[in-house]
Design goal:
The structure is a homodimer. Chain A is mainly α and about 220 residues long. Chain A folds into two domains: about 50 residues, Orthogonal Bundle (Arc Repressor Mutant, subunit A), CATH 1.10.10.60; about 140 residues, Tetracycline Repressor, domain 2. Chain A is about 70% helix and about 0% strand. In chain A, helix 1 packs across helix 4. The radius of gyration of chain A is 20 Å and the shape is globular. The N and C termini of chain A lie far apart (about 75 Å). Chains A and B meet through helix 1, helix 6, helix 7, helix 8 and helix 9 of A and helix 1, helix 6, helix 7, helix 8 and helix 9 of B. Chain A binds a DNA duplex (30 and 30 nucleotides) through helix 1 and helix 3.
DNA sequence: TCGTTTTCTGACCGTATGGTCAGGGTCGAG
DNA sequence: CTCGACCCTGACCATACGGTCAGAAAACGA
């Protein structure tokens, strides 16, 4: 019997191996796509024999599904910043900040998600039709309320959301292009902050949440 | 001898077959990724035997490269709208329109491009470092001029470009997600127009190129 | 300690895929 | 019409990949 609260060696190993496999898989799927990824490569990256992967995850599809599901959870979590915001500017600004942070911290996840959707969402179509749709409708209603209160201009909330998703995720999904255009160097802390501020400024001004042409004569 | 200006039967067949293969390849690469695409599937979609593909394009890599190169040309062409614009608003607005049109007309190309960049641009890295970089630097200079003339606010031109790319290409790359959130139906003509207007409105207002909160009390 | 359950893995298998090639067909020039 | 060059393709490889499995090893409970 194991002391309560403490993991048995078995459980600890299991947990660690699963985590290592999932992390390796996320990276490989992101860099090679589902078709280009191989179980052997994921195994090597996780430091485990290939057969061991199949012990934890029966098939490549199952492993991929787990990776995508994890990402979806994180994706929705960023929504917290939109909720319970005192006003439109802080709500939307905070959401942009959260999503930019996600792009920076989980670039592989973002790429896997993008790849999955680009290929017609064969694995997570049901999530799109249920959780994502519900989530989206809820935020649209919230944004519409801000519009009715006169806090922001009368833009289509749906396209505003798309714009935020597109712009923020671009820094992860097209990170390689951005890096190349940055002289081959990854964005520095300062540059990430500047990017976030730029995105926030343009969008918040664009929807009339902050005064136009701030700081400009 | 063939009449001048008119293609011999051979040349015509060659041209048509190459075009069919490239079109099929673009679609298959977009929907399955490079790794997931098979020469057999491309052949079937083009209505040709697999061996014939290898007659026109020696390897899968070569075919893929041709597909990506074609896309890159189209990508750069949309830049015309930014050049020779009388002012910032028409220049940037026109560029957004052109890119939205591209997302609508060449969704497969956009996806292949996105996939290529997401995987680290193994095929077109040199283009990114030369043609794209040059192109980008040129537009940044043009935008900076508009800023100096006081036509738009002092945003970072680089991030403005990223924002335009991200937002417009999102309608192609994430078209499936957008379609799902649109009740499973593709965007109608009217909805595409609304999307374009939304993007233009937010960005142009966001950079101070048009008055803030137009039409809002 | 012992027996049982769970975990692990090297070696193996069937299949699908990219690519090849010999041989036949078709076209165009002279 | 004839000949050479180009075009086409069914049949065929070699390989790499996802997945399996028998059996060893480790962990566990009693």
């Amino acid at each position: 019997m194991t002391a309560p609260g403490r993991l048995s060696k078995r459980d600890a190993t299991r947990r660690e191996n699963e985590a290592r496999i999932l992390a390796a898989a996320e990276k490989v799927f992101a860099e090679a796509g589902f078709g280009g990824a191989t179980m052997q490569l994921i195994a090597d990256m996780a430091g485990l024999p290939k057969a061991n992967l199949h012990y934890y995850f029966a098939t490549k599809e199952e492993l991929y599904r787990k990776v995508v599901e994890r990402i979806f959870v994180i994706w929705l979590q960023a929504a917290d910043r939109l909720d319970n915001a005192p006003d439109a500017a802080t709500g939307i600004g905070g959401y942009i900040e959260a999503k930019m942070e996600m792009s920076r911290r989980h670039p592989f996840g973002s790429k896997v998600w993008a790849s999955e959707v680009m290929h017609g969402a064969p694995v997570i179509q049901d999530y799109l039709e249920t959780a994502l749709r519900d989530w989206t409708e809820g935020r649209i209603a919230a944004i519409r309320r801000w519009i009715d209160e006169g806090q922001i201009a009368r833009i289509d909330p749906r396209h505003l959301l798309y714009m935020i998703w597109a712009t923020t995720q671009h820094y992860a999904d097209f990170g390689h292009q951005i890096e190349t255009l940055n002289g081959g160097r990854p964005l520095s802390d300062r540059q990430w902050a500047a990017a976030t501020e730029s995105v926030k400024a343009v969008i918040l001004r664009g929807i009339g949440a902050i005064p136009a042409r701030t700081g400009i004569p």
